[in-house]
Amino acid sequence: MKSKNKTNALLLVFLSAGHFLFAQIDEKATKETKILYQNLKTISKNHILFGHQHALEYGHGWSNEPDRSDVKSVTGSHPAVVGIDFSDFSGRSKEQVEKAKEILRKNVIATYERGGITTVSWHFNNPASEGGFYWKDGISAASMALIKPGGSHHEQYKGILKTIADFAHSVKAKDGKLSPMIFRPFHEFDGGWFWWGKPHTSREDFIAVWQFTVSYLKDTLGVHNFIYAFSPDNQFNTTQEYLERYPGDNYVDLLGMDDYADFGRDGKYDLEAGLKKLKIFSDLAIQKKKLAAFTETGLESIPNPKWWTDVLLKTLKAAKLELCYVLVWRNDSTSPTHYYAPFPGQVSESDFIEFYNDSFTWFENDIKHIYRLKMKNPEKN
């Protein structure tokens, strides 16, 4: 396990004369959100944070237990980055929406108060048709054109964004500060499985909705504790393809990618291709002075006992990448096979501990005071 010196060591950015080194798109972002952004950028130069989706809401064989995560059960530390989802903020009854908001509010505040980081995906239920967030032929409507400014469902969409804004304003911790969140809307948009995917919406409509979403949240609704993440799937091979639906530097803080296919899905590995894609947007982020992250990956059921070190860690170290975090998908509470992080007794448990102990990877115990501006020794012993 990590030494006490190692777990207490935290890189925190020194900002000479009080100036921030990398510009966020929201000039009015809260102090804590700005500090988080800067520290994530600096962490990415020499380390990477580990994240897990729905880590504290439930895990393999359990749900709704305080201060529990499968990652903590294995390593003694929660993941540094905890994923939540706004999926229940629309297409539900008012009572269901409020219940979902309360559960997530406690989760986000607790993560902030422990010194962890929250990232938010959005499996957005189609506001103009049945079918949920997936595209279902004969059921789903191509709704990006309908929710953009001037569209038939634009006012409805504004109401949904108001629900998100109300939540963002509610995550106030005991110190009186709002908990920052990395907001990642319309992810995997280059595939066709979601209703906002490339086959179902034009480039122009996608960009129009993205730009409106960001502007409305921060400029009209006053949300200033979001870092905005742009996250396609792995359906690109060049910088030009990656940027095909990019809404512009004024509307994105973080460049990411979701990639399961190159990292072992269905027994198929193409780590060279995966690394090439990571390098494409990592280099873009360096060029644009943005953050970059491996926003989703993983191997369902983790049948490869050395996946963490031989596949994931080796790839992340194989080139000069500047990624602030890597996040694996959720551990279902009831399914015997749908999990992406180990739990006690799982075949990759010992390899995951090796992954945890590596000086390159940082977990929640390694990032104390990430919302403060201090210079501390960034290296792990």
From TrEMBL:
InterPro entries the UniProt entry points to: GH, GH26_dom, Glyco_hydro_26, MANB/E
EC number: 3.2.1.78
Keyword 4Fe-4S listed: no
Primary localization class, coarse: secreted
Cellular compartment(s): Secreted
Signal peptide start and end residues: 1-25
Family assignment from sequence similarity: Belongs to the glycosyl hydrolase 26 family.
Catalytic activity: Random hydrolysis of (1->4)-beta-D-mannosidic linkages in mannans, galactomannans and glucomannans
SUPFAM superfamilies registered for this protein in UniProt: (Trans)glycosidases
Name used for this protein in its record: Mannan endo-1,4-beta-mannosidase
MF term (GO), any: hydrolase activity
Active site: E188 (proton donor), E296 (nucleophile)
Alphabetical list of PANTHER family matching this protein: GH26 DOMAIN-CONTAINING PROTEIN-RELATED, MANNAN ENDO-1,4-BETA-MANNOSIDASE E-RELATED
Keywords: Carbohydrate metabolism, Glycosidase, Hydrolase, Secreted, Signal
Top-rank lineage group of the source organism: Bacteria
Residue ranges of domain GH26 in the record: 31-365
